Amino acid sequence: MKILVIIPCYNEEKNIQTLVEKIKKLDYDYLVINDASTDNSPKLLDKYRLNHLDLINNIGLAGVTQIGFKYAVDHGYGGAIVIDGDGQHPPAYIKTLLDKVAEGYDYVVGSRFVDKPKPFTMRMIGSRILSFMIKIKTGRTVTDPTSGMRAMGGEVLKDFADNMNFVAEPDALCHVLKRKFKYTEVQVDMEDRVAGESYFVNPLRSVKFMVNVIISILFFQW
Q: Could you read off the pLDDT of 70-90 as tens digits, one per residue?
């Protein structure tokens, strides 16, 4: 089965080249989707001839990943895996997730908390709230609802390419569970961001994200 590694990229000039080189060494097809970065990411992608698409307007993570899913379907890929462009998802775990897809799972999430406890930080309190909301809606327990590292087989890939209406990872997960796709989590140890700034460094963005995702989970993911 052909697999595409989809890499959303927004202002990752100090991370993207290193990440792609690691993926290339593992011999996976990949696509970087540059979400109208304002730093030197577009120049680096061109300079090093990395496989990529440049968007002229910033559309956010959900739109970027859906473009990746559509690209994968249009180019004959039977599955895909999303890896954040900041380098926090070690490519060495790609095979771990894909092995589960090969076993028959439709959607596999790389979770930090399958075998390890979740800390009581402000961000992880938000994670607990989202897990609770997903539990209310689907009856399923998930340990890491905001993980952006997720692999999917052909049915979910086509579903996401054609019908995706999500804010981010948690409501995408809710969508998968409500539609009875076969889902599992695998333990991954994620890296700290080496350079650049997380979208959630701004507290107001974090609050807006939480509100939008909770509304989507409770009222839109039927």
A: 999 999 999 999 999 999 999
Contact 81, 97 (CB under 8 A): yes
Q: How far apart are CA 185 and CA 93, in angstroms?
A: 12
Domains and CATH numbers, the chain: 3-219 (3.90.550.10)
Instruction: Give the integer Cα–Cα distance in Å for 29 and 185.
Output: 23
Q: How far is CA 177 from CA 133, 145, 193, in A?
A: 13, 12, 30
User: CA separation (Å) from 46 to 11, 54, 183?
Assistant: 15, 10, 37
Residue with tokens 């900041």: 86
The total of other beta-carbon atoms located within 10 Å of residue 161's CB is 19
Identity at 104, one-letter amino acid code = G
Range from 50-64, 164-178, 207-221 carrying the lowest mean pLDDT: 207-221
How many helices (H) does the chain have, and how many strands (E)?
8, 7
CA distances, 195 to each of 36, 38, 86, 87 (Å): 19, 15, 8, 9
Rounded distance between C-alpha atoms, residue 37 and residue 189, angstroms: 27
Pull the structure tokens for residue 179. Answer: 């539609």
Where is 187: in which H helix or E strand?
A: strand 183-187
